Target: Glutamate-1-semialdehyde 2,1-aminomutase
Amino acid sequence: MTASNHELFERAQTHIPGGVNSPVRAFGSVGGDPVFVKRAEGARFFDENDQSYIDYVGSWGPMILGHAHPDVIEAVRDAAKSGLSFGAPTVSETRMADLLCELVPSMDMVRLTSSGTEATMSAIRLARGFTGRDRIVKFQGNYHGHSDSLLVEAGSGALTHGVPSSPGVPKAFADLTTTVEYNNLEQVREVFAEVGDEVAAIIVEPVVGNMNCIPPEPGFLEGLRHVCDEYGAVLIFDEVMTGFRVSLGGAQEHYGIKPDLTTMGKVIGGGMPVGAFGGRREIMEMISPMGPVYHAGTLSGNPMAMAAGVKTLELISVPGFFDVLTRRTQALCDGLSAAAKAHGIPMITQNVGGMFGLFFTDKDRVANFNDATACDKEAFKAFFHGMLDEGVYFAPSSFEAGFVSMAHGEAEIDATISAAERVLARMAG
Ligand code: PLP
Model:
């Protein structure tokens, strides 16, 4: 027998801090040992001992077609045969840029990066360069990657200066980031009344996926658009998670609001490291070499990443793809909610397109960071481990959204709901 997940995790910690290359993988908030994945196919992955799990993390969003989709794998294989990286233009980058600008309503031009973090970091620099202003407004509980300007959370009130979320983020950077409660337009207006002429950009997850799954309240995104127009600030939709996930044209298409800039990642790389930022031509023309705002990357637009991304975008562009994905996600959420209700466990679900969240709360809706953090973490832990033992892998944190892929058919969804019924019955009992 291969080593257990426990042994593998211990071994990993010798030379990797915490044994992982991204913190939430370590199961810190649910306890226990992370699952070491050997391979994946469709809706499932398998650990080093060939234990199978129905996967609702999907590499944190990218695997919208399911794992190891044969056409995507073939596209990457073909690209690899021609060389891994050139550091010179390729037609595959043009194809990717054309597709993104065709499919995303507000995108006139786009630049490719190697991660979502690079995309948001570059979009912020661009907004600052374009407006000549330094201040950024973001929302509590929204995550935009780990660059210094964005790794900031709120102080106690909307108008307090930002407090760094991590040692190493200079206070001077955090001071330029004002954090406001999500879904609270009133607070946004108060901030702008005070410092609106200093604000370069509002950056927002149009559906939040980083404090579980929290959709915008009606009027919230429209309100942000109006405030930005009034004060000459750039509106950035961070669609790294929602892009090609909540609908083909992202949250901006779903809610009918056009941001000035959009950041992308995850799905557009089909599982390879890719990000992108793009938007209004007049702003994008400020990027070097056209304009003075610097952005670069040795591996930006990498040919294998383009091959995986372009093939993924082509496959999800077929008519009806997002209707089916949304119906499957809804069926999963309805089944989970009904199971919780049947066992008297206070749990609700929230979902948009192919993303969803489970909240152990007796509220009927979760709208912001305070609501999300007030949920019952112990109940989530018990549910998470119960499901893991049943062979169903949800995100190992109550603050992360879940993802359904096109490979999650009726069989996987029914099996998940049946497992949840058993787990919730044990929790109730
Ligand atoms: N923005 C959002 C909304 C995200 O969810 C993430 C990652 O989860 C990022 C940015 C950062 O992307 P990456 O992890 O590719 O750097």
